[in-house]
């Protein structure tokens, strides 16, 4: 009923750090990525090749990527919003990229300065060129459950964007609960609809932010549906402390604690991962919000 193994797609260095107000030195980011890999994570999203004015914290992508690209046996996906971003990523040798779409018009506008369909039109040649270059392509879909401007998001609206990304050639999709409002029944319903629309479960990952404390319950619902790729952020990094609707991702440590408790393999050394998050929290000057990190580091 539950999978024997789960692949964790670690997003701490990208989703976690992209909202950080204080500048994190490139060397610290590189050390973070290396420590995450050292803890046994084999998919470590490294950075984004987006417009530096839109996400100043990741403006050092060109400097950072070469500092980590020698890591053996570790996939280092990067976000690319358009052709310019893809060119920058491929020039550095990146072979795993992610485009990021939205299920809602409000967030497409806020995040990409485009309508949903305009952004899909931008992604189409990007996905094709990435595939031609031999890259693996992930397609994120944000606001799959709720949107801060539009409220609850109907599953068929999400399915339309998912099938468009699949038709373009995306190898996998990641279903984003960007503001952390999903609950397990909603997760189950969306996954079932996507299967009905021809998107197979092995091509689906889940990406839960933990705003309402539902991320683990939602993950379990997804695992019961057959999902084996789960996004998480070391230490629960991420989110802006001033934006109620955007807290951090599901903490990788909380996820690993649950998965190992269920007898599901991850390849992650929880002790080393926790030590990494404690180290990163020191760099950022505030404690990790992860319950598991707190429990394991206050002995
Ligand atoms: P725009 O202003 O519409 O850009 O922004 P444009 O296409 O009109 O181009 C304007 C200028 O920007 C041009 O320069 C371009 O060359 C340059 P000029 O010719 O005027 O000198 N430009 C770039 N420069 C460097 N790298 C690039 C790039 N693209 C254009 N890639 C754009 C459109 C998409 C660029 C902008 O909106 C953007 O960068 N957005 C990124 C936002 C972002 O990174 N958000 C966070 C990631 S998504 C997320 O966190 C959700 C997720 O976690 C899942 C979930 O939780 O739901 C994935
Ligand atoms: Mg996210």
TrEMBL record:
UniProt protein name: Hydroxymethylglutaryl-CoA lyase
Signal sequence bounds: none
Sequence similarity: Belongs to the HMG-CoA lyase family.
Sorted UniProt keywords: Lyase, Metal-binding
PROSITE patterns: PYR_CT (PS50991)
GO biological process: ketone body biosynthetic process; L-leucine catabolic process
Keyword set includes Lyase: yes
Upper classification of the organism: Bacteria, Bacillati, Actinomycetota, Actinomycetes, Kitasatosporales
